[in-house]
Amino acid sequence: MTCNYKISEKIGEGAFSEVFYAEHNASNFPVALKKLKIESLSEDEMKSCLNEILLLQKVNCENVICCFGGFKESNNYYISLEYADAGDLEGLITMNRQNGRLFSERSIWFYFHQICAGVKELHAKRILHRDLKPANIFLTSKGKAKIGDLGLSRIFSLKTQFAKSIVGTEYYLAPERNSQGGYHFKSDIWSLGCILYELCALRSPFNGEQQNAYALFKRIETCQFPPIPANCYSRQLKYFISSCLTVKPANRPNAEQAHLAASLMNKKFETLRLQYKKQFGK
Question: Which residue in the list 88, 131, 149, 188 is annotated as catalytic?
Answer without folding.
Answer: 131
